[in-house]
């Protein structure tokens, strides 16, 4: 994903766009025929604005924030395993299992093991993520006991109540693209192309998403319901093993 993100940034800058990092947006305000996107460091003025904050939207734009559930998932990367890797895996392919609460993992080029899994309404710190995923790894590959975890992190995804990607334009003219949790990089990239074409006037593909709309996810009650649902399926997975 890092290489992909860097590639997108490079394509943007090669095309003449400016990328502002470490510029948290605090407000989006209608200004004449366009918009003012405000940060602590200054403002950007644009004719069109697309909100693609996903699980990090918080209270930036309540009309959009109320339509998604911010859900965390966790990833860790082990130390280089060298020959120990073959005691667990003899493939270079990515793997995931068939449970609802599944693990997903793959060997990296430097013999590290990247391991991901779990979903939660809690955006945990690195130490907690490492501890939880290390335990999950040992349930599958106990022979890797004692392996050091070098990196761990969590990230927030966004889910709509209908679990479909949310693409469209609000009546006041603000475009949005969110709700990609569980859909992966390829559909998310395609959605960006759909939005770009719509901004240029080709709305046929975008209009197909209007049937799902932006139903509310229920705020804190919705988050609690999502967590309880995950725990239920996690328990069901355990009972079937």
UniProtKB/TrEMBL annotation:
* Pfam families registered for this protein in UniProt: DAO (PF01266)
Q: Any idea where the FAD dependent oxidoreductase domain is?
A: 2-197
Give a yes or no for keyword Lipid biosynthesis in this entry: no
For molecular function, the Gene Ontology terms on record are: oxidoreductase activity
State the superkingdom: Bacteria
GO CC, alphabetical: cytoplasm
Q: Which UniProt keywords apply?
A: Oxidoreductase
Q: What is this protein called?
A: FAD-binding oxidoreductase
Organism of derivation: Rugamonas fusca
